[in-house]
Amino acid sequence: MLRVVIAMIFASAATAAGQILIRRGMQDVGSLETYAPLALLSYFGQALSNPYVILGTILNGIFYFLLIASLSWADVTVAVPFTAMEYAFAAVLAITLLQEVVPPVRWAGIVLVIVGVVLVTVSGEPTSHP
């Protein structure tokens, strides 16, 4: 179980950092304002060539590889809820890197989610065997 916990903490941190970097990159690219085919092609070309978006996408890929490994070690009802740890990492990174404000009620929600993850994690033995 320890390897699942460690892998999912790293996975959650990677995906949170990935999402923050993608957000930062998309701030550079700007908002999508038109749905004309050539404009969409240009817009997504700019997005996909932005270094922040590229690095964020790589970090999201790392998340999926760690999730796949975790699913080979633990029940899906244990591994998948661990992905919610991303909320805490994302909030901290959004504050520090994007200067976003996270109100107290949002922090309370994040704490409740983390408590739920802890309850799922300590809930007992695996129900399936490889």
Note the main sheet.
none
Proportion in β-strands = under 5%
Number of domains: 1
Structural class label: mainly alpha
DSSP strand count: 0
Molecular structure report:
75% of the residues lie in helices and 0% in strands. The protein has 130 residues and is mainly alpha-helical. Helix 1 runs antiparallel to helix 3 and helix 1 runs parallel beside helix 5. The chain is globular. The mean pLDDT is 91.
List keywords for this structure.
130 residues, 0% strand, mainly alpha, single chain
What is the fold's blueprint, element by element?
Elements: H1 2-29, H2 37-48, H3 51-73, H4 76-79, H5 86-98, H6 104-121
Helix pairs in contact: 1-3, 1-5
Short description:
The protein has one domain. It has 130 residues and is an all-alpha fold.
